[in-house]
Amino acid sequence: METHYRELTEKEICRGLFRQFIRRQIVVECWRRENEKWVIRDDPFIDDWSESDYEFLVTCLKNTIATGGFVYGFFCDGILKGFTSVEKALFGTAEKYLDLTSLHVSQDMRGKGIGKILFHEAGRWAKEHGAEKLYISAHSAVETQAFYKAMGCVEAKEYNQQHVEAEPYDCQLECQL
């Protein structure tokens, strides 16, 4: 099994790149904010991407690169099995955040440290581009939140309203770089 990590180019991002990527996540418990406290609630569902979700993803990742952002992938035997993306525009009242817009590992490759490497590469790139913190609007699944906590993420001190409105159940996080 040959594995490698590398930055992706706009030209190579297409639906075919994700042909063997398995987004599927079985979710049982999620973090929810109730009465100003975070609690775990049962909210079982299966999170997966439809064909239109993949088309939207391709458009977003191409835009990230076209606007100077970062898209970085993990490949196993030439097949994309993980990726992350960071937008280029600093934001927040002190313009100290860069937006980690995606970090996904294919279901068949989770638990092998790939997400950790992708996260650290995103942070390295963000720091090189002037950020003090990564901002993450993260899935509220208990497992997803455990990953981000292990990476050093905490609740964001300053929420990005666009993310809150787009995904009201996401947890808004930040990570000091």
From TrEMBL:
Pfam families documented for this protein: Acetyltransf_1 (PF00583)
MF annotations from Gene Ontology: acyltransferase activity, transferring groups other than amino-acyl groups
InterPro entries recorded: Acyl_CoA_acyltransferase, GNAT_dom
SUPFAM superfamilies membership: Acyl-CoA N-acyltransferases (Nat) (SSF55729)
Annotated keywords: Transferase
All copies of domain N-acetyltransferase, residue ranges: 16-174
Identification of the protein by name: GNAT family N-acetyltransferase
Species this chain originates from: Sporofaciens musculi
